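tool_call: predict_structure(chain=1)
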Amino acid sequence: MPALLFGNAYTVLAVMYITWPVAMTSGAVYGFVAELILLLPMVHSYFRLRGRPRPERVSRRRIRSIVIYSLLLGLAWGVTFYLMNTEIGREDGIALIVVMYLLIYGSVAMMPSLPKASIAYMSPIIVSSFFGAFWHDILSLAWLLLLYFGALSAVGLSMWQNWHDLGRSVRLRLENLQAQRITEQSKEVLERVSGQLAKYISPQLYRAILDGKQQVSIASQRKKLTIFFSDIAGFTETTDQLESEELTAVLNQYLTEMSKIAQEYGANFDKFIGDAIVLYFGDPETRGVRQDASDCVRMAIAMQRRMRELQSEWRDMGLERPFEIRIGINTGYCTVGNFGSEDRMDYTIIGGEVNLAARLEYEAEAGGILLAYETWSLVKDWVRAEEAETITVKGFARPITTYRVRGIQSEPDDKARVFRHEQEGLNVILDRDRLGAKEKVKAAEALRNALRVLEKD
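tool_result:
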């Protein structure tokens, strides 16, 4: 477009300079003036828009204006050529035809982007110069036909190439849109399926596989983990009270609430085994052995507190013996990785420390948390715990020292959830989290009765 614009301006000035006497006598000078006037707004638009990014789309109003300006400029050239042919000889006439030919070929440059403007510009030039040259006997009809046939052939070839390129561009765009639509649909399906599959494995393992940090192959490694086991105490006896639909609803609510807390503290899900939950901290992501143990114990305390709330809800629903869970936690070296076959594998943990965590859970009291010595040593700075009985576990040479969790040391005594006092002839354990509203009334009455008995003595 700039070449065509400034080419026209240069041609106007050059032809005016060379043929000035003829232009004055033939009146063609008015045509030159009209051409310069029409070129001025185009030059102004060019300098105003220079340096700006080319717009992807041009408005219809803008295209219409360009077509009108091109038509007027072509008419001005056509009138100018016709008038000049009346006052010049054969040689100068042929020179004008050559100039006309150059203008026509220059307009072909607009054909790919602005075909209507190109046709509007060249049509008056072709018609007026053809009839002017023929009428004033500048060239014979045969030569004129040959020249104009060549010009029109170039125009036709450019138009065919334009439509061919346009068709190919449309096809490519349609193919790209179709490919993009298929890609988006595939991505949507993949995301939906991935989201569903993510529910079958832990979030940490899912992210590790997607990020390429975890290879899906038969492989394992030794790591120091903190292992968590929990199950529902007296599950069989409790479920005998419930219909299968009620059992399913209550059990799913319990597992859902515990899973939310586990995700909040960053636990890695190993498996659900009926009513039992197996979790661990330290793989595939770890915050350090001490912090992993702290996160696990804090999670266990949060779970037991949430269970107190759920027990109150279940009692209000008519469940006479709501679920109580017992928790065992151990810290030690385990083998963690993919176990199974090349076609079907399970990412899990194995080893004696895992077995010890399971045994701790079995020995824990209902509603309690039982820690192995190593876990207790990592959290003793902030956990209220008391030493419990030692247990003997197959595979361990010495008896295992265990600790019952009673709360968090940072809690003031009046806000502690568990009150315990032991002396000769007196053993009081008050667990506020395990008492519902009705149980608190009964407990208060029992303590008052005990106090009255002591006062009578």
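agent: DSSP finds 14 helices and ten strands in the chain. Proceeding to next step.
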